[in-house]
Design goal:
- It is a single chain.
- The chain has 386 residues and is of the alpha/beta class.
- Helix content is 35%, strand content 24%.
- It is built from 14 helices and 18 strands.
- α2 packs across α3.
- The longest helix has 27 residues.
- The chain is globular.
- It starts with a strand and ends with a strand.
- Bound molecules: ligand JHZ.
- Ligand JHZ binds next to α11 and α13.
Length: 386
């Protein structure tokens, strides 16, 4: 459906002087059988997930989101100190810490060693492994299994969901979050497409995949401002009572994530990419200084696909210490700390972490008041001032 060419791995940031800057094909396919939009060229998972740079705790928005998540799911299942919550792809333990604060026992599963050790250091027991049937045999059965922004990353979805079924008690719930493909398409956010994300879920393929594993999608919540639009699904082994939200959202999605929506998207995106680059080149011609705000995984795709390099961006500022001092692959834009950026502020920030628009614009009120501006890339490139 959409061939983006060969692009670097989004989170494989380069160290200064590094020459290992490789690119892999990034092509989206649409399955006429199950309607799943997906990648077919797979990069071995150990190349992407052994050492990871993304930390869930890097934004206030996500910390608050996962704190509320723990509160509402603990209430929904009436979890007590006897329960244990199992979180797959537990990252730095942000969600599990929120359960621990409520007196609930936890276990994280996180294949990235460096990130798992941050969680362990924060008191979150974590297994540095992939979630599969072999591991499931060693695990206690749970009433709550969570996996947030993980299912999109999974190469063998059938195995993953069979494992979820295996570790879940019959009265338990599998709760997960995935970016909603309808939002990616509507918002033109092509930078959500990268090698780590193998599946781009709509409700139809999601419910079908769960169903094949004996899990039934009983409820949904929608978070429009999390990662540009996130679905939180609740799947059960025993109940088949579906909330009306699932039907309402499925109806809403009907035309928004089908073959034609995908086709329109693939025609709009190259134009948008040109438009964004021209807009930034125009600013450069006027003598303006431009930098990136945030160095999310998405930035690698946005910058490489649009051809926005060091000729346009002086640097990208990011709060994550693991990213600072490194370069965005392909384009070689250096990542600096917000403190370094503040000493040398640009005239315009290209908002690469556009999903945190609210949090960032509020935080950068001073920059805006002094005449600084933001270029927001989606749904159409727009300039925002104070
Ligand atoms: P953020 C992540 O993608 C990773 P990314 C993952 N692959 C996934 O699936 C998706 O989420 C859904 C920085 N920042 O959350 C912190 C600032 O510098 O958009 C982060 O590096 N200043 C699992 O990497 C980055 O921006 C700020 O004020 O695209 C945001 O990364 C704030 C708020 C953030 O995820």
């Amino acid at each position: 459906m959409f061939d983006m060419g060969s692009l670097p791995l989004a989170n494989r940031l380069l160290t200064l002087g590094s020459t290992a800057d490789s690119a892999y094909p990034l092509v989206l396919y649409y399955c006429h059988n199950c309607a799943l939009i997906q990648l077919a060229d797979l990069v071995p998972r150990n190349e992407m997930f052994t050492d990871y740079v993304y930390l869930t705790s890097a934004s206030k928005t996500m910390m608050e989101h996962f704190d509320r998540y723990a509160e509402t799911t603990a209430q929904r299942l009436d979890l007590t100190t006897k329960d244990i919550v199992l979180d797959v792809g537990s990252n730095d333990g942000t969600l599990l810490t929120a359960f621990q604060r409520r007196g609930i026992r936890v276990l994280g599963i996180e294949p990235a060693r460096n990130v798992a050790s941050i969680a362990e250091a924060g008191g979150v027991p974590t297994l540095t492994e992939y979630f599969d049937l072999k591991l499931a045999k060693r695990l206690e059965k749970v009433r709550l299994l969570t996996a947030n922004n993980i299912m999109s990353h999974v190469g063998n979805l059938r195995d993953f969901l069979a494992t979820a079924h295996e570790v879940l008690r019959p009265d338990g719930l599998f709760v997960f979050e995935v970016p909603w493909v309808a939002d990616v398409l509507r918002n033109n956010s092509f930078d959500m497409i990268y090698h780590e994300h193998l599946s781009y879920f709509g409700l139809k393929p999601l419910a079908r995949a769960l169903g094949e594993a004996g899990l039934f999608l009983v409820d949904l919540e929608y978070y429009p401002s999390i990662h540009g639009g996130t679905l939180r699904g609740f799947a059960s082994r025993s109940s088949k009572e579906q909330s009306s939200v699932v039907r309402e959202m499925s109806a809403r999605e009907e035309k928004e994530a089908d073959f034609w929506a995908m086709k329109d998207f693939s025609e709009r995106v190259p134009k948008l990419a040109h438009h964004l680059r021209d807009m930034l080149l125009g600013l450069k011609k006027e003598g303006k200084r431009v930098a990136g705000y945030g160095a999310p995984a998405k930035a690698t795709i946005l910058l490489n696909y649009c051809g926005i390099g060091r000729d346009i961006l002086d640097y990208a500022s990011d709060t994550t210490p693991l990213k600072q001092g490194k370069l965005i692959p392909g384009v070689g834009v250096p990542i600096v700390s917000p403190q370094t950026a503040q000493k040398n502020p640009p005239d315009y920030y290209l908002l690469l972490a556009w999903n945190f628009r609210g949090e960032i614009l509020a935080k950068e009120e001073g920059f805006l008041r002094k005449g600084g501006r933001f270029v927001i890339p989606f749904p159409e490139p727009t300039i925002v001032d104070s």
